[in-house]
Amino acid sequence: xxxxxxxxxxxxxxxxxxxxxxxxxxxxxxxxxxxxxxxxxxxxxxxxxxxxxxxxxxxxxxxxxxxxxxxxxxxxxxxxxxxxxxxxxxxxxxxxxxxxxxxxxxxxxxxxxxxxxxxxxxxxxxxxxxxxxxxxxxxxxxxxxxxxxxxxxxxxxxxxxxxxxxxxxxxxxxxxxxxxxxxxxxxxxxxxxxxxxxxxxxxxxxxxxxxxxxxxxxxxxxxxxxxxxxxxxxxxxxxxxxxxxxxxxxxxxxxxxxxxxxxxxxxxxxxxxxxxxxxxxxxxxxxxxxxxxxxxxxxxxxxxx
Length: 305
Known about the structure:
Blueprint: H1 6-18, H2 21-27, H3 32-46, E1 51-54, E2 57-60, H4 62-83, E3 94-100, H5 105-119, E4 123-129, H6 132-140, E5 146-151, E6 158-173, E7 195-198, H7 203-214, E8 219-224, H8 227-235, E9 241-244, H9 248-251, E10 258-261, E11 269-277, H10 283-295, H11 297-303
């Protein structure tokens, strides 16, 4: 009997989830012809047709729907098998995949990695930068073990642990009329300002847009592809933005052409936290990591008041 390989099952599930051979190939870091060849081989081994190809993408056949349920179960068991070997009861060991969203990675990773390595010296962190949706998908598939992102996440599949509150600052060019003020600003000062956002796909974009709604401010149609680009656009006088405090030293440091001001009263903020699969057998290890990261003095100064 010729059995399917785990790689073939992963490719099959990726196509079923995305509805596209092309998207699945990108997600799996493989060429589309190579992925298609593996699916054809899987169909040959099983003796059934798994997908119906249409102009709008691919649809699961009746056989494909049944295989998908079983493939997910097999991959979950494999993930559980691997997870069972990543600890010795008290410490993690081996390779641990950590996904980090782009609006946190450049600013808090040194402190996260330092706290992690101090607690689990036999573990090797493999770090992936990805948007929130991709991070959650990678967690579901067992491609990473842990995520660092903005909370909350509404899903029963995962457990989370908050680390700190990351306050938003108003970032503006040095020649802005509010730049000379040293006092905290009222949120209503956003009204009439061109607030630049990150492009679609970044959770920070949605969080800043929500703050703008509270201030009855309309965000600008101008978008930035990254935090670094966003800061450069502000420095160039194209508008203002809300900058997470954890990014202040990097993106608004001396000579960057940006001035930041805190907001008066209860400042808008986002919660930074860790996330992992609910099925992880030793959740207390990740809870312990989150607690130690939160107590790290340098990190706490960056992201809390």
